[in-house]
Design brief:
mainly alpha, Farnesyl Diphosphate Synthase, two-stranded antiparallel ribbon, 72% helix, Polyprenyl_synt_CS, transferase, EC 2.5.1.-, transferase activity
C-alpha cells in the first residue's frame, strides 16, 4: 500500500486520516479490478486499459473523504459508491478520447488508437453499464442521482461539440459545458460519500454544492494554466488548447472585449493557430491581456464560494482538507 498523504490527490494534513483513506483506496482499487472483468477476455482487456494506466482517483477519494463526516465511513456501501463514480469517470474518458481524437491518455495509447473507435465507444458503454449495476445495489435514490448525473455529463459532452445558439453568451455556454462534464460527477462524489457514510442531510447538501463549484473551478484553473504556465513548471506544453482551437475561460473573456486595441488578438483567435509564429503571437497577447487576470479572479471567487458551503461541516481534518483543496484551486493559476 502507498503510504503518506503526499500519495493522495487531495491535500490531507492529518496523518491518521490519510492512512485510513489510503487503506480504503486500496480496497477500491481491488474492487475496481473485479468490476471491469467480463466473461470475454477481450472486453476485460479493453475495460482495464485506462484503469491500469493509473490516474489520481480523485473522485473515489472524495467519496471516501466525505464519508468520514458520518458514522459509517468504512461501510461496504461507501466502497461501492467510490467504484460507481470512478467507473463513470473512466467510461467518459473512453468517449472523450474518441471525440477529441486524442492519441494518449495517462501516458498510454488511447483505446480508440489501439482498437478503433467502435471498440472504444462500446467499452465506455460497458463501463457505464457496470457503474449502473453497482448503483442499483445502493438503492433507488442512488439510481436516481446517478441517472441525473449521467444526463448532465452527456449533455455537457454534447454541448461541447456545438456552437452557442443565436444570442447565446459563448462564456455562459462554456460554463454550462464545464458544469455538466466536470462539476456534476464531482458533486455526486461528495454527495455519495456523505450519504453512504452516514452524514446529516445538511452536510450532504453542503458537500454537494461544494463539489459542484470546486470541481468546475478546478477545470477552469486548467484553462488558465494552458495560457499562463511555463512548460518546465507545469509539465504541459503551453497553449495546447489554444493551438487546437478549444475555447477556454481566458480566451472567451478576451473575445468578449470590445477594445479596438484587441483587433489583432481577435483576428488571431478567429483563425488557425497551427503555425508556430501565429500561435506564439496569440499566446503572448493573451498573457498580457486583462482577460487573464479576469479569469483568475473568477476562479478565486468560485473557490471561495465553494468554501462558504463548508460552514456547516464540523471543524476537523476533513473540513480542513476540503478547504485546502479549494485554496489550491484558487492559487494554482495565480
Amino acid at each position: 500500500m502507498t503510504s503518506g498523504s503526499a500519495a493522495l490527490a487531495l491535500p490531507v494534513g492529518d496523518d491518521a486520516l490519510a492512512a485510513r483513506l489510503l487503506e480504503r483506496l486500496d480496497l477500491v482499487e481491488v474492487a475496481l479490478a473485479g468490476h471491469v472483468r467480463s466473461r470475454a477476455e477481450f472486453v476485460t482487456e479493453t475495460a482495464s486499459h485506462l484503469m491500469e494506466a493509473g490516474g489520481k482517483r480523485f473522485r473515489p477519494l472524495l467519496v471516501l473523504l466525505a464519508a468520514e463526516l458520518g458514522d459509517r465511513a468504512g461501510s461496504d456501501e461507501v466502497i461501492t459508491a467510490a467504484c460507481v463514480v470512478e467507473l463513470t469517470h473512466l467510461a467518459s474518458l473512453y468517449h472523450d478520447d474518441v471525440m477529441d481524437e486524442a492519441d494518449l491518455r495517462r501516458g498510454a495509447v488511447a483505446a480508440h488508437t489501439r482498437w478503433g473507435n467502435h471498440v472504444a465507444i462500446l467499452t465506455g458503454d460497458f463501463l457505464f453499464s457496470k457503474s449502473s449495476e453497482l448503483t442499483a445495489e445502493l438503492g433507488a435514490d442512488a439510481v436516481r442521482i446517478q441517472a441525473q448525473t449521467f444526463t448532465r455529463l452527456v449533455e455537457g459532452q454534447i454541448l461541447e461539440t456545438v456552437a452557442p445558439g443565436p444570442g447565446e453568451d459563448p462564456l455562459a455556454h462554456y460554463l454550462e459545458v464545464v458544469a455538466g462534464k466536470t462539476g456534476s460527477l464531482i458533486a455526486t462524489s461528495a454527495r455519495y460519500g456523505a450519504r453512504f457514510g452516514g452524514a446529516t442531510r445538511e452536510v450532504e447538501d453542503a458537500l454537494t454544492a461544494y463539489g459542484e463549484i470546486v470541481g468546475a473551478a478546478f477545470q477552469l484553473s486548467d484553462d488558465i494554466l494552458d495560457i499562463a504556465s511555463d512548460s518546465v513548471e507545469s509539465g504541459k506544453v503551453p497553449g495546447t488548447d489554444l493551438r487546437e482551437g478549444v475555447p477556454t475561460l481566458p480566451v472567451l473573456m478576451a473575445r468578449a472585449s470590445t477594445d479596438p486595441a484587441d483587433a489583432r488578438l481577435h483576428e488571431l483567435l478567429d483563425g488557425e493557430l497551427t503555425d508556430d509564429d501565429l500561435h506564439a503571437e496569440a499566446l503572448d497577447l493573451l498573457r498580457k491581456h486583462p482577460a487573464l487576470d479576469e479569469a483568475r479572479a473568477y476562479v478565486v471567487a468560485q473557490a471561495n464560494d465553494a468554501k462558504q458551503h463548508l460552514a456547516v461541516v464540523p471543524e476537523g481534518p476533513v473540513r480542513a482538507a476540503l478547504e485546502a483543496f479549494a485554496d489550491i484551486v484558487a492559487t494554482r493559476s495565480t
